[in-house]
Amino acid sequence: MAELAPCSLCKSTYTYQMDATLVCPECGHEWNPEEAAAETRFVVKDANGNMLQNGDTVVTIKNLPVRGSAQSIKAGTKVKNIRLVDSDHNIDCKIDGFGAMALKSEFVKKA
Fold this sequence. Notes:
The protein contains one helix and eleven strands. The relative contact order is 0.17. The longest helix is centred in the first third of the chain and has 6 residues, at 33-38. It is mainly beta. The strands form four sheets. Strands 1-2-3 form a three-stranded antiparallel sheet. A three-stranded antiparallel sheet has the order 7-4-11, with no helix packed on it. Strands 8-9-10 form a three-stranded antiparallel sheet, with no helix packed on it. The radius of gyration is 19 Å and the shape is elongated.
């Protein structure tokens, strides 16, 4: 008997196969193992090595100059509800007083 992958949500090892999907009896999660293997999630970490997720709140750790503006984003500025993107500046957010911005994760820490 082949060993089935554990549940991707609750990590339960009691998964079983139903047709082409795997089912977790503990949390009720159903997924297609072939699609799950095809999804490649990128990992974004802050300056301290903590993993960031969409919707997190972060704080800037240094003054960040804003191109085209005389002002800069001060260290300690709290940024709520971030969105992660797969690019050089991997955090999209909205900062009060500046508007929509793209930040690098190496200049923020998780709040």
